[in-house]
Amino acid sequence: MALTRKGQATRERILDAATELIAQHGVAGTSTEDVRKAAGVGGSQLYHYFDSKQALIRAVITRQAEAPLVPGQPVMGALDSFDALQAWADAAIENQEHHGGRGECSLTTLAGELGPTDEQTREDLCNAFGRWQSLLHDGLGAMRERGDLRPEADLDELSLALLTALQGGSLLSQTLRTADPMRASLTAALAYVRSFGA
Amino acid sequence: MALTRKGQATRERILDAATELIAQHGVAGTSTEDVRKAAGVGGSQLYHYFDSKQALIRAVITRQAEAPLVPGQPVMGALDSFDALQAWADAAIENQEHHGGRGECSLTTLAGELGPTDEQTREDLCNAFGRWQSLLHDGLGAMRERGDLRPEADLDELSLALLTALQGGSLLSQTLRTADPMRASLTAALAYVRSFGA
């Protein structure tokens, strides 16, 4: 279904509201009625765009996968140098500091809550994490090609180390409400990447 | 309320069932009726031990906090040498491999699902993570005292780096259903700890 520009804006407004509510209250704590109210749209309008809560959640995941790796940041350049990776880590830590540890990564919440339960949603989450991993993988690949990283650097391992650090940091920072876990996790992962420096 | 030995065994059976169901289906996907059936107890019996679903969940968290850091492992010795830390990491990776990435850490699921929502549960989770962090902190402290780690090793940072690696690895392994994220996260975190070796 092709949407008009106005329709597209309404759909985005609904997704914005759903993303924020899920990050704050989890999927189970968010009803379509909450989303409808927060977005300021009528019930029939919401169901015009998303015919079920599950369709809405899948759209949140898909859109989150296209977001830059750090919430609140504008478009992110290529992560293809130690400086760019450090800037990315600093932005993630600052995001947690700014929000008192309530950083807004709804994917972390979604993976914790839905990962084990719902097969279709799990596949969407795999695609989302896969897209983020490949952003890191591409940047590290460029660094290896350029000679910044030694040939034995394992791009799969290093990109996973950075992504798990971001997710583990996010999960603990969210629970403990301080940025310390995010800072420790990303410092360790980046140091590991640097240990393969040429 | 002091429990008889039989009462204690019934309570443990209920908690076993609840822990397993939550790890598999999340909190929202687990009803007290599911727990009652899986534990094979009557409804009035369940409410004798836990007067609400929330009381049951809090007891799951408290008990999980007392479990060894890697599910499925018997009592864990002190994590106070590089060998002991490596054995701990290997056990966590093997646990994920054995379960095809469906490792059974219900705390990861609980933190993802409830961390942002429920203040009392969040505090229980903080205590649980705090206890795990202090196990790591104690072990690393002994290593620094013995001279295995250099004096400038920051025990708070290193223990958080290991704990976030465990949680991030668990979250991603659970979603992607492979042990690769757990292996990458713990390899990176342990390498960071080793970089402070004397």
SS-derived structural category of chain A: mainly alpha
Low-confidence stretches of chain A: none
Which chains have the largest interface?
Answer: A-B, 51 and 51 residues
Topology-level CATH name of the largest domain in chain A: Tetracycline Repressor, domain 2
Relative helix content of chain A: over 70%
**Terminal Cα span of chain A:** 51 Å
The helix count of chain A comes to 9
- Mean pLDDT of chain A comes to 86
The 3D shape of chain A can be described as elongated
Assembly state: homodimer
Q: CATH class of the largest domain in chain A, anyone?
A: Mainly Alpha
DSSP strand count of chain A = 0
Give the name of the CATH superfamily of the largest domain in chain A: Tetracycline Repressor, domain 2
Q: How many structural domains of chain A?
A: 2
Please give the largest β-sheet of chain A.
none
- The fraction of residues in strands of chain A falls at under 5%
Q: What is the H-and-E element order of chain A? A: HHHHHHHHH
Write down the Rg of chain A: 18 Å
CATH architecture of the largest domain in chain A: Orthogonal Bundle
InterPro entries (chains A, B): Homeodomain-like_sf, HTH_TetR, Tet_transcr_reg_TetR-rel_C_sf, YxaF_TetR_C
Keywords (chains A, B): DNA-binding, Transcription, Transcription regulation
GO molecular function (chains A, B): DNA binding
Protein name (chains A, B): TetR/AcrR family transcriptional regulator
